Amino acid sequence: MTTASANVVFDEVTKFYGEILGVNRVSFSLEPGVTALVGPNGSGKTTVMNLMTGLIQPTSGTVRVRGLSPSDPEPFFRQVGYCTQFDSFPRGVTGRDFLYGPLRVTGFSRAQAEKLTHEALERAGMLQAAGRRVAAYSKGMRQRIRLAQAIAHRPSVLVLDEPLNGLDPMARAETLALFQELGRQGLHLIISSHILEEVDRISDRVVLMSNGSIVAEGRIHQVRREVQDHPMQILVRCSNPRQLAAEAFALDGVVEAKLQKDGGGLLVRTTDSDRFYLLLNRVAAEGAVEIDAVAPADDDVNSIYQYLIGSDEGAS
After folding, report:
1. Domain 4-225 sits in which CATH superfamily?
2. Where are the beta strands (DSSP E) in 250-309?
């Protein structure tokens, strides 16, 4: 059983970029292990990772990483490693230099920096290519050298933004095995990824985000159940919305059916979209209601739903 001081803790964290809301009252406490952070583009994942690594400060609320605050930068940054998606390197730098230089700048002795550099290069499978210039690396090699830099100072919290991008199948399997090993050693690994099936295989928990808020947490199957219970909005343009509303209210799972102001449609909120779509098929076949158009009215929730529920058929 871990204590709260050993966790990554967000307490009612809100972040505004000017007038734009990044995340809204996000709260969680993550124990050591592998956490997958998932959700569509714009859901707030990158904002959460930047807050977690101290790159930005919350507008309100508090962030603590293993008991440390980003406002105390020196001990905080010793605890945190961050591998972003940004693929940018100093001109002419070699793989070894890319690790060794930052270690020296942050206070490690020459002997310590050399040892940590060698160790990280070996763990990331980049030892043989360490003397080559990064500019000559493939995309997968650049991804692995950034991972090596993120783990070089032996952080206790490792935040990884799409770390499997560009890796061939063998390198991906080796990287996933490394993540599992680090998780077993008591590290926090927070991984943002769209390769949900592979991440779920090694993750202890999933945090699902939408519109800057947490929709669900837990193992992937638990999260799927929670998303299924989240009401979806469906807009139907039809000839007789009042009759369709009466039919819809007779269904289990429909929590709202609201007529559109122009009288030509109906907005339905339901936790069982499949049953509602069957109803639409039936009323259309009977000819009592002419259906002109059907579309999800909540694109973010629908995309998350399809992203998770459809993953069994290979969606990513």
Report:
1. P-loop containing nucleotide triphosphate hydrolases (3.40.50.300)
2. 254-259, 265-270, 291-296
Q: Tell me the whole-structure pTM to 2 decimals.
A: 0.69
Angle, helices 110-123/139-151, rounded to nearest 10 degrees? 130
Region(s) of the chain under CATH 3.40.50.300: 4-225
Ramachandran area for residue 105 (φ above 0: left; ψ -120 to 50: alpha; else beta): alpha
Residues 6 or more apart from 165 whose CB is under 8 A from it?
Answer: 85, 139, 143
**What CATH number should be reported for the domain whose range is 231-297?**
3.30.70.100
Q: Note the pLDDT tens digit of each residue in 184-210.
A: 888 899 998 766 666 777 888 888 888
Domain with CATH 3.30.70.100 in the chain: 231-297
* DSSP secondary structure of 12-62: EEEEEETTEEEEEEEEEEEPSEEEEEE--TTSSHHHHHHHHTTSS--SEEE
* Residue pLDDT, tens place only, 89-138: 888 999 999 999 999 998 899 999 999 999 999 988 899 999 999 999 98
Torsion on CA atoms 168, 171, 173, 177, rounded to nearest 10: -160
Amino acid, single-letter form, for residue 124:
A
Does residue 131 contact residue 159 with C-beta atoms inside 8 Å?
Answer: no
Looking at residue 4, what DSSP letter applies?
A: G
